[in-house]
Automatic annotation (TrEMBL):
One of its GO terms (molecular function) is metal ion binding. Its cofactor is Cu(2+). Pfam families: PPO1_DWL, PPO1_KFDV, Tyrosinase. Keywords: Copper, Disulfide bond, Metal-binding, Oxidoreductase, Signal, Thioether bond. This is Tyrosinase copper-binding domain-containing protein. Residues 123-140, 300-311 form the Tyrosinase copper-binding domain. SUPFAM superfamilies: Di-copper centre-containing domain (SSF48056). Residues 1-24 form the signal peptide.
């Protein structure tokens, strides 16, 4: 009798466990039958059970080269491969159509799971780099098999390279731009993105009123953006925030996904595409189709060359070593995605399988990364202590003024000459010497019930943590809200209350947030984002690791949005 009771109890536990919602787990491989076709992107029904991905050690080591350096022979092969891919019927999962649709399905939350409220969104969180690597892997293998050349590798569009030496890396390569009979061409690209215009890595369209970005100074600002974004110290800053099964995703991308990845997309897409009819659907395209719209981006072959460059930068970031490591969280490593391989098999691959390029049998041509050569900053005489160690200032700062006074701080510092070497207005840092304590004293803390700002820069102070921890200090803005249908660009500075758009070459520039409206997507009403910025390296570079408070100034560039956030707190990130 007792045994029966125990068995019954066990059975109840098992049933309960089976019914329970699983929160915080790896994503299982999506099933096509649960794809919800609201965005019209689901793959055709396919009842097969996906086969597990396996490595192909026999593949030749394929080399992805910089798009500006490939020769005519390669371009011919590259074009032939895309011509073949475009020629496949749409029902063929290897066709460019089906490839683009698959990307769309993964970016609109179309892949639902039985018993889970949320669909999978591979953008805006920690899967961004890993998912795209897998997608590129299969895409490239399909192209290779279509031209029966197993050495074929995609090129990378080297937009981060600002060297003003021909051939330029930071323009769309001309062989993408030839209109006639060119399978690499897309009519849905911005006029402003056509060569010889160079790419604008902070492009949002904001403040331009349809004009092309001014190329003057663009190389410099692109270099600054690259240097800053690639200096992400932790996996979370680089890849984006953790995102687990049965939770809502897409709200906290890493540095690189937002800028320059998103900006390059919208720079390349045609802002006027909505004036034309899509011959397939007889409906109008959306503004910024194709590249500037995730639902259609992968219809443009440029998409894949854009993403190989991101993939290369991920590889480079890891190879820099030190704290640059990927997540070791099993919810990350064991999450699975499905793709179609070159034989049209449905394949399931997990994140842990894309972390080693050798095993995937490809590599990148060595390329200098000129943004690394930005002149190293001369920090003032100070030993660089460990990340969260500081020496408390001798006296506590005076009580801050009321919020309203803040608006005048920038002017106060702009007009009030400060003593010492920092009085020179051409230097970025007014903050070495006695000024920093004054800046801290006058900057108010944030209000507890949320903060908003618009075109007037916002300056506030945040207290650093008292504890020392293993990891890096990051500043996280929670519940960031704006009009998501409009573009926005915010730059963040440390101890620089009179920062302007031009201050991005200052060492105090420590983060940027771009919002790119996606005409084809509507955000839920309560949509908000999280924005996380690294502090430790910046504080060290400007010699401010010892201070108890940081003073942050947010400046909107070009856009004129009303921007709100709930709080900005400093945490230790040990990812
Ligand atoms: Cu899946 Cu560049 O986007």
């Amino acid at each position: 009798m007792k045994l029966i009771c125990v068995l019954l109890e066990l059975l109840v536990v098992v049933v309960l466990l089976m019914c329970a919602q699983v929160y915080g787990a790896p994503f299982p491989a999506p099933q096509i039958r649960y794809c919800s076709n609201t965005t019209g992107c689901c793959p055709p029904p396919d009842a097969r059970v996906p086969v597990d991905f396996f490595f192909q050690p026999g593949l030749p080591m394929r080399v992805r080269s910089a798009a500006q350096f490939v020769d005519g022979k390669y371009i011919a092969k590259y074009r032939k491969a895309y011509a073949a891919m475009r020629a496949l019927p749409r029902s063929d999962p290897r066709s460019l159509y089906a490839q683009a649709q698959l990307h769309c399905a993964y970016c609109g939350g179309a892949f639902k799971y039985k018993g889970s409220a949320w669909g999978l969104e591979i953008h805006g969180g920690w899967f961004f780099f890993a998912w795209h690597r897998a997608f590129l892997y299969f895409h490239e293998r399909i192209l290779a098999s279509l031209i029966r050349d197993h050495t074929f590798a995609l090129p990378f569009w080297n937009w981060d390279n600002q060297l003003p030496i021909e051939p330029l890396g930071n323009i769309i390569p001309c062989y993408f731009d030839e209109v006639d009979n060119n399978p690499l061409y897309s009519p849905n690209r911005a006029q402003c993105a056509r060569p010889p215009n160079i790419v604008d890595l902070a492009y949002t369209g904001a403040g331009l009123n349809g004009e092309c970005p001014d190329m003057e100074g663009l190389q410099d600002s692109n270099g600054e953006i690259m240097r800053l974004q690639m200096s992400a110290e932790t996996a979370r800053l680089f890849h984006g925030n953790p995102y687990r099964y049965n939770t809502r995703g897409g709200r906290s991308p890493g540095n690189m996904e937002r800028t320059p990845h998103g900006n390059v997309h919208v720079f390349a897409g045609d802002p006027l595409a909505d004036l034309r009819l899509n011959p397939d659907t007889q409906q109008k395209y959306a503004a910024y189709d194709d590249m500037g719209n995730l639902n259609r981006a992968a219809y443009d072959p440029l998409f894949y060359a854009h993403h190989t460059n991101l993939d290369r930068l991920w590889d480079f970031w890891i190879k820099q070593g030190g704290a640059h490591t990927d997540f070791s969280d099993p919810d990350y490593l064991n999450s699975k995605f499905i793709f179609y391989d070159e034989k049209q098999n449905l394949v399931s691959i997990q994140v842990s399988q894309v972390l080693d390029l050798d095993k995937l049998r490809y590599k990148y041509d060595d390329m200098i990364n000129p943004w690394l050569m930005e002149p190293p900053l001369d920090p003032p005489d100070e030993i660089a202590p460990s990340p969260s160690m500081y020496v408390p200032p001798p006296a506590p700062p005076a009580p801050p003024p009321e919020m309203g006074m803040m608006r005048t701080i920038a002017e106060a510092f702009a007009t009030e000459p400060s003593p010492g070497p920092t009085a020179d207005p051409t230097t970025c840092s007014p903050t070495f010497g006695p000024d920093v304590s004054r800046i801290i004293r006058y900057a108010p803390p944030l209000r507890k019930n949320g903060t908003q700002f618009s075109t007037t820069p916002l300056t506030f102070r945040v207290r650093r943590l008292d504890t020392t921890g293993k990891g890096f200090e990051v500043l996280t803005f929670s519940d960031l809200v704006m009009d998501w249908t409009e573009p926005a660009q915010i730059h963040a500075f440390l101890f620089l209350p009179n920062a302007t758009a031009a201050s991005i070459s200052c060492p105090e520039f420590f983060g940027t947030f771009s919002h790119i409206p996606e005409a084809a997507r509507t955000r839920p009403k309560d949509f908000s984002m999280t924005w996380t910025l690294g502090l430790t390296t910046r504080l060290r570079e400007i010699g401010k690791l010892h201070v108890r408070h940081v003073v942050v100034t947010l400046v909107q560039i070009g856009s004129e949005q009303l921007i709100r956030f709930q709080d900005a707190i400093i945490e230790i990130d040990s990812s």
